[in-house]
Amino acid sequence: MADAAALTEPVAPDALDAEDAKIVTLARSARARTGAAHGAAVRDSDGRTYAACTVSLPSLSLTALQAAVAAAVSAGAPGLEAAAVVGVDDLDGGSFDDPGLAAVAEVTAGAAVLVAGPDAAAVHRVAS
Fold this sequence. Notes:
By secondary structure, the protein is of the alpha+beta class. The chain has 3 helices and 9 strands, in the order βαββββαββαββ. The two termini are about 20 Å apart. It has one domain (about 5-125): Cytidine Deaminase, domain 2 (3-Layer(aba) Sandwich), CATH 3.40.140.
C-alpha cells in the first residue's frame, strides 16, 4: 500500500456542502445495505454518483473506494470531483491508508476525498 494520507480535523456532516454530504450518505447507505466493512461513493465531473462496498471474494478483493472508482470508470466517468469512504474504524491516528486513494488520483489528481467512521458523525478530508 502507499503511504498513509494525512487527515484534516473532523467536521460535522451538516457542515459539508450538499453535494459532499450526498456522497457521504450514499457511502453510508452502501455499507448498511450490504453489511460490508466499508462503503464508498464517488461523484464524477458530470455530477453522477457511484456507490460501492468492500468486495471480498476468493478471486477478487477490492476496497470500497477501489470498487466505487471502478464503477465510475467502467461507466465512462470523465473525471472525479470527490469521493467518500464510511466505516473506517481508526481515525484517531490522523491518517488514512487505502489503495483506492491511488485510484482516485489516477483518474483525477486533486479530487477531494472524505473519510468517516462507522456512524459518519464526523467527516475528515484527506489533506492535499
